[in-house]
Amino acid sequence: MQLGIIGLPGSGKSTVFRALTGGVTAGDHRGYGEPNVGVVTVEDDRLDFLNHYHKPKKATAVHVEYLDIAGLIGEGKEGGARGDAILSHMRPLDALVHCVRFFDSPRLDPPQPLKDFGRVEEEMILSDLSVVEKRLERVTIDLKRGRKEMADELTMLERARALLQDGTPLRTVPEVAGFEKFRGFAFLSAKPELFLVNAGDNKPRAEIDTLVEEILQRVTGQPYVAADWIYADAEAEIARLDPDDAREFLNDLGLSEGAKNRIIKKSFELLRLIVFFTVSDKEVRAWPLNRGKTALDAAGVVHTDMQRGFIRAEVVSFEDFMNAGSTVGAHKGGKFRLEGREYEVQDGDIILFRFNV
Predict the structure, then answer these.
(1) Strand, coil or helix: 342
(2) What are the structural domains, with CATH classification, of the chain?
(3) What are the CB-based long-range contacts (under 8 Å, 24+) for 259-265?
(4) CA–CA distance, 90 with 5 (Å, rounded to integer)
């Protein structure tokens, strides 16, 4: 899973990046405008339990990759080489973490978080509009040449253009955002987005909560959006500490857990992701999967051969396995089930795939 941290210059993106990645700093090898990348292991007590029980050669957790994207310029105009390059880094991402400044800085004007939020959203919408208009020109020409199969795409492009010209993100209309022929364009305003208020340590929680609520009101009715907040300066330093010291400082800030775990959980909810497990003597592994996907889909996540030769899945929920205390106990208790390819995988399922190729 790849998440891009975006925002205007001065919004504190790099500090947020360090807070979310546990203190990763920019590498000297980066080229100008290239995103810094940090990989974070998703902590999961269930994986720890399975690792302790099975004692495999290795245990593999889910990983999240954060990209610290260079600051957007807030204009959204086509043709600026630097702006176009930055936007191109955003298109392959699974979701965006939109950093909004809510802290004072001697180098910057007083924060205007709602205005800044609007500028970044407008830039992405204008970028998408440019892509749509270019594609419309091409499709219109193809239709005139007799390619009637392009008619449905033309209709959707016209709908997309109308939305974008009205300043409306494409995600607002899932039928448009999810149109199969749009997949290759990776529209920015169609991506899931987590709005993250980067607050100064001196900002009262009441003010922060009010701002988060105001942002949520502006995106009311849009699917795949969420909002949260962070004391990035403090949490970037806390991320460098050992767990006991970190817990003490988090308590002083009135936080039950650090931003790294909190934002990962929020991102999983945003992307409708669950986790299932596979176990063997060689490896215990956690796998991310979109909620609502089937056993056949899960098999394909593990290996295409498993999906191609799928026979059945032997499934036990983590809770049932833990309560039974052992594989033998879970079998005796009738907790293992045989499921077919259409079975909808549940969060925490432990699955053994039977296949033949």
Answers:
(1) coil
(2) 2-139+159-270 (3.40.50.300), 292-355 (3.10.20.30)
(3) 259/19, 259/20, 259/230, 259/232, 259/235, 260/19, 260/20, 260/21, 260/22, 260/40, 261/43, 262/228, 263/20, 263/97, 263/194, 263/196, 263/228, 263/230, 264/40, 264/42, 264/64
(4) 9
Residue indicated by tokens 């009715």:
221
Please identify which residue in the block is written with the tokens 């899931």: 192
Tokens of 289: 């999967």
Once rounded to an integer, what is the mean pLDDT over residues 194-216? 94
β-bridge partners, 198? 101, 230
With tokens 């208020």, the residue in question is 197
**Strand 36-41 versus strand 63-68 pairing type:** antiparallel
268 has pLDDT over 60: yes
- pLDDT one-digit tens code per residue, 1-33: 899 999 999 999 999 999 998 765 444 445 556
**What is the rounded end-to-end Cα distance, in angstroms, of the chain?**
29
User: In the predicted model, what is the mean pLDDT of residues 336-356?
Assistant: 97
Helix (H) or strand (E) holding 162: helix 151-165
What is the C-alpha separation between 306 and 296, in angstroms, rounded?
8
From the list 247, 240, 288, 325, the residue with the least C-alpha distance to 95 is 288
The Cα 4–Cα 239 span in angstroms is: 19
- Under the phi-then-psi rule, with left for phi > 0, alpha for psi from -120 to 50, and beta for the rest, what region is 216? alpha
> Given the structure tokens 């934002």, which residue do they identify?
263
Bridge partners, residue 302, by sequence: none
3-state SS assignment for residue 351: strand
| Interatomic CA distance for residues 62 and 278, integer angstroms | 12
CA 154/CA 139 separation, integer angstroms: 6
Residue identified by tokens 């040449």 is 145
pTM for the whole structure: 0.86
pLDDT of residue 250: 81
Q: CA-CA distance, 78 to 75, in Å (whole number)?
A: 9
pLDDT digits (tens, 9 = 90+) for 73-107: 655 454 444 566 788 889 999 999 999 999 999 89
Q: Which of 157, 191, 153 is nearest to 171 (CA)?
A: 191
